[in-house]
Structure formats: structure tokens, C-alpha cells
Write a structure and sequence with these properties.
eight-stranded parallel barrel; alpha/beta
Length: 297
């Protein structure tokens, strides 16, 4: 009997198979199915996505680890594509961080990234971010690494220090993070392409570039980032932003036009929904069960 690979192992395999590895944000289980059918080898659950989409609040450390775990379970139940998860600052001291790692692993996540902001965190592309001392972040990472129940579970360090401390000091931090056991570095709010090259040349672990829209980082192509040495390219909320704009348009059109007819051609069809969900297979199973019951009665 073949033992299925852990989510962490599947993620590391994807990282070797595709360079740079495209990781696309999926805010719910249905989005994960569409991403899987589009051919992505890894997907992502954003902390902002959980806060914004599941709770209707800003990404300011308002949601909890348990809130995120619920969305992890729903997504990983729908797809085998490895799910990388935003763990914010770890939600507390060492015991809390360890519990987060174990909880997310049980929920099906392949790994996390944890950031070096203070607990009262802000969006990575907003001003006035407060960064903890390097030693505090090192302790967070050591705790997360030690808490792993699966050696392949990917623990990534996100650094938000670039905006306030500059490149050289941030690289010094990242060296300490790698020494503490970080499997990768998430360089947040990079403003110049060549800074990615500096991160990649200075560090001997994979580096992630966050291609979030409307932020501080230029939106580079996979090929451009690959030439700079980047190993992972993240699109955390791209589909979510597009979905929001489409939903706003549909809501406003129906309210104004008093019918949905002007926007029907912009909707995913019922048949396409059924294809993504494999609806007809489920329906066939129901029919077979009903026919079996009729035959037995």
C-alpha cells in the first residue's frame, strides 16, 4: 500500500519541479478547485483573505489561528494541491506558535510563513509597520521549527524590515532567520527588482517574491523574477480582487437595471460550475443508489 506524501512533501516536490513556483491565492475551497484545474502546483491562503472574505474586517491582526484553521480544513478537503498559509506573527508566545504549527499541520497545510512585525501587525504594504528585534523573530522561528510533527512542513520567514531598516540590515536579519531553521525567506514590500537579486545571492534558501497588486512592489513576470533568482512567486489576492470588482458590478447592475440580464454573459455558467465540482459524477452516484434501493424493494 502506497503511503500518500504529506502536504509538506508535496510542496517541496512542487518547488523542485517548477522554478519559479507560481503560488496563487485561493480564498475558499471552490477557488482552490479552479486553481487546481488551471494547473497550479501550489496554492495559498492569505491572512488578509481570511480577514476580508470570511469575516469582513481589515487585515490588522483581528482574526485568530482557529479562524484560519477552519478555512484551511475546507480548502484542503477539496484539493490535494499543497496549501501554503499566512500565519501572521504566530498569534502569541512560544506555546501559541507551537500550537499554531501543529493545528495547521493537522488541518492539512503544507507550510506557513511567519513575519517579523509586532503582534499588532499591519498590511505589509502600509506605512508605520513596527518590527520586532531580530532575537524575538529568531525565537519565533525556532519554536515553529521545533513544533513540527512533519519534518517536511515548510516554515518560511517573512521580513517586513526592508522599509524601515534598509537592505543590508534586512539581509543580516535573514541570515539569522535561516540559521534558526527557516526553510525560505519571504521578502515583503521590495521596491526595486535588483533587491530580489541581492536576497537570492545572499541566502542559501528559496526566496519568495510577493506580486500583490496596488502595493509597493513592481509587478514582474515569472521570467523576470526567475532571472533574478527568485524561487517562488506569490499572487495572494489577485482572483479575490477580480471577484470583488465583478461582484460590485453585478450588484450595482441588478439594483439599477432591476434585472440581471445585462450581466449574464459575464457570469460563470451553471454547466461550468458543474464541471469544476464534478457535479454529474455525484449525481450519477445518487441515481445508482436510488436504483439499487428500488431493485431491493
Amino acid at each position: 500500500m502506497t503511503v500518500p506524501k504529506s502536504a509538506g512533501s508535496r510542496f517541496r516536490q512542487a518547488l523542485q519541479a517548477e522554478r519559479p513556483l507560481q503560488i496563487v491565492g485561493t480564498i475558499n475551497a471552490y477557488c482552490s478547485l479552479m486553481a487546481q484545474q488551471a494547473g497550479y502546483r501550489a496554492i495559498y491562503l492569505s491572512g488578509a483573505g481570511v480577514a476580508n472574505a470570511s469575516f469582513g474586517v481589515p487585515d490588522l491582526g483581528i482574526t485568530t489561528a482557529n479562524d484560519v484553521a477552519i478555512d484551511i480544513e475546507r480548502i484542503t478537503a477539496a484539493t490535494e494541491v499543497p496549501l501554503l498559509v499566512d500565519a501572521d506573527t504566530g498569534w502569541g508566545h512560544a506555546f501559541s506558535i507551537a500550537r499554531t504549527v501543529r493545528t495547521f499541520t493537522r488541518a492539512g497545510a503544507c507550510g506557513i510563513h511567519m513575519e517579523d512585525q509586532e503582534s499588532a501587525k499591519r498590511c505589509g504594504h502600509r506605512p508605520n509597520k513596527a518590527i520586532v528585534e531580530t532575537n524575538e523573530m529568531v525565537d519565533r522561528l525556532r519554536t515553529a521549527v521545533d513544533a513540527r510533527t512533519d519534518d517536511a512542513f515548510f516554515v518560511m520567514a517573512r521580513t517586513d524590515a526592508l522599509a524601515s531598516e534598509g537592505l543590508e540590515a534586512t539581509l543580516e536579519r535573514c541570515h539569522r532567520y535561516v540559521e534558526a531553521g527557516a526553510d525560505g525567506i519571504f521578502a515583503e514590500a521590495v521596491t526595486e527588482p535588483e533587491q530580489y537579486r541581492r536576497f537570492c545571492e545572499a541566502l542559501d534558501v528559496p526566496v519568495l517574491a510577493n506580486m500583490t497588486e496596488f502595493g509597493k512592489s513592481p509587478l514582474l513576470t515569472v521570467d523576470e523574477l526567475g532571472e533574478l533568482g527568485v524561487a517562488m512567486v506569490l499572487y495572494p489576492l489577485s482572483a479575490f480582487r477580480a471577484m470583488n470588482l465583478a461582484a460590485e458590478h453585478v450588484y450595482n447592475t441588478i439594483r439599477r437595471s432591476r434585472t440581471q440580464q445585462p450581466v449574464v454573459d459575464q457570469m460563470q455558467t451553471r454547466e461550468r460550475l458543474y464541471e469544476v465540482l464534478d457535479y454529474h459524477r455525484y449525481e450519477q452516484q445518487i441515481d445508482e443508489l436510488l436504483n439499487l434501493k428500488r431493485a431491493e424493494s
